[in-house]
Amino acid sequence: MSVPDKGKIIEFLSNKYSCKFTTMARKQIMFEGSTNRERIVVCTPSSKIHKKGSGWFDLKMAQVEILDDANISILAVRLEGNKVYLIDFKELRKLMTSDYIVFTPLIGEHWKFFVWESQIEIQGNRNKYYVQPELGSWI
């Protein structure tokens, strides 16, 4: 099974928002564009499905700060099996308190997310963010 191509997701979102997204410098999974004088940032993490049945990804502090600073922030989570979850980051962000920041020597401070079929969990947080995969032209 494959993970959807981020280029196809960006193309889909470019059409949806009528703007051209460009890759942010030194940020391979982050894109920015603007429409109606609003800055849009898209982050496109990906994951395979792991043995426990979920995918997972990390968001570093710098990535979160960039998403926080945009007018419109979209987390386009690409999951094995051609699943894409288009998430309003500003809504998910409400669950991302400092209590759930994880530290590892390799990554530093970050949040760890687990992606299940119909929900996203932040490591340590019992609250869940409910979401369904999108159907789009990346399939």
Structure explained in plain terms:
- This protein is an alpha+beta fold and 139 residues long.
- It is 19% helix and 42% strand.
- The protein has three helices and eleven strands; from the N terminus they run αβββββαββαββββ.
- The protein has helices spanning 6-17, 61-69, 89-93, and strands at residues 22-24, 27-35, 38-43, 46-47, 55-60, 72-79, 83-88, 102-104, 108-115, 119-122, 128-130.
- The strands form two sheets. Strands 1, 2, 3, 4, 6 and 7 form a six-stranded mixed beta sheet that branches. Strands 5, 8, 9, 10 and 11 form a five-stranded antiparallel beta sheet that branches.
- β2 and β3 form a beta hairpin.
Question: What labels would you give this structure?
Answer:
139 residues, alpha+beta, six-stranded mixed sheet, five-stranded antiparallel sheet, 3 helices
What are the SSEs and their pairings?
Layout: H1 6-17, E1 22-24, E2 27-35, E3 38-43, E4 46-47, E5 55-60, H2 61-69, E6 72-79, E7 83-88, H3 89-93, E8 102-104, E9 108-115, E10 119-122, E11 128-130
Parallel strand pairs: 3-6, 4-6
Antiparallel strand pairs: 1-2, 2-3, 5-9, 6-7, 8-9, 9-10, 10-11
Number of distinct helices: 3
Distance between the termini: 12 Å
Strand content: 35-45%
Q: SSE order in H/E notation?
A: HEEEEEHEEHEEEE
Query: pLDDT under 50 segments (min length 5)?
Result: none
Class per helix and strand makeup = alpha+beta
Q: What would the average pLDDT be, to the nearest integer?
A: 94
Radius of gyration: 14 Å
Total number of strands? 11
Portion of residues within helices: 10-25%
Shape: globular
Largest sheet: 6 strands, mixed
